[in-house]
Amino acid sequence: MRQALSGILSKSASSLKTIMILALAMTLVVAEAASSQAAKSAAIVIDAKTGKVLYSSDADGRRYPASLTKMMTLYLTFEAMAKGKIAKNSRVVFSARAAAEPPTKLGVRPGGVVTVETAILSMVTKSANDSATAIGELLGGNEANFARMMTAKARALGMKSTVFRNANGLPDPGQFTTARDMAMLGIALREHFPQYYGYFSQRSFLYGRRRINGHNRLLGRIKGVDGIKTGYTRASGYNLVSSVSDGDRRIVAVVMGGSSGGSRDNRMAGLINTYMPKASSRGSGVLIAKAGGGNPITALAKVFLPKHDAPTPDEKPDNDAIAALVEENAPVVEETTPVVQTRKVKTVAVATADDIATARVAAAYGDAEAVDPVNTASVPSGWAIQVASSPKRSEAQAFLDKTSKQAPSILADASGFTVAFDKDGVTYYRARFGGFGSKNAAWKACGALKKKKIECYAVQQ
Question: I need a surface site. Which of 16, 251, 263, 385 has the fewest CB within 10 A?
């Protein structure tokens, strides 16, 4: 009996020891995970009227943006709407690639169509990955081109530490940003597109018979919060950009790398309550210069791209040659993106990988003025109508705007864009409307334009 009892006690002690060891190990794992998460957290609060930084914690540390990426997707969408290139009721077709994106998503089948406004609302509320990809394909021709447009626009807005690789923020090791850059983008969205900024305050919307609710729990909870965007992946942690107004005061705050949605929201609430009273009630100057016109890559002053000797969209650049050139002239950096070749480069002084990614857009079309800030590299497939050609991109764009106003019903579903090309050493810009599904559709539309005394011809892209 004593031996049996001794055996039982011995086994119990051994089991207890094992349990204690496991508990200690779990504690260490949890502590290590918490420490790792805390180490990668970042935050910034900026007075949106004066630009003064009210609070900063590792604001320039590299972070994964997750769904904050969609802020830039929406910026380019709003820009296209403001220029009349698309409208809120324009059609967004979901490709097989877009439809296959993982949740969260709207759930549109391949070949399905929604309006631009539905795509916007689904990105703002549900953070729909499929809608972001579909919008990227609409504006950029394909998502890779659209990502280059996003990076170029980031650089033009002064976001020096951001590179985009996709339209939705799904994990990509080459896609990164900082809390400071995201704050700048948040300010730019409100400053540049006040007519569309109200979308960010939308808490839910109806899609068919479904009501889709948003992820931003601070809307309605914290006084003055009117947007902007949440984001999460395992690698990024929980992210949030908030715009807040209180009387004459306005701030934009960013929290990145939160350990949970609740802790992120609580930290944001604390920052708002602490720093809103410290914001200035004066100051109305524009903080983020508009990246409009024909020069969205002014920040790349170190890279001189020749005007008359650059490849046009009809030519295939030699990626290997330019990659060798960049490797020879620039230091080794992480996550580089090769630049598309220009035939002659006067000076190359590429300092960072993100500058290389931005230059890729410009190099494909010659100089800065050859880059259409909305439809860069976005020559729509299928049939288009050409209405003008000019040695100045501004004139070609003006003709597009004029034609759109003269024939709004005929061109309701078309998308205006410019294409640069060289002829006898001179750069010209074709003014075209794309989006026609067939030759007959393009010819029919052109015939209707001619009845309005607008010269044109149909061309296959």
Answer: 16
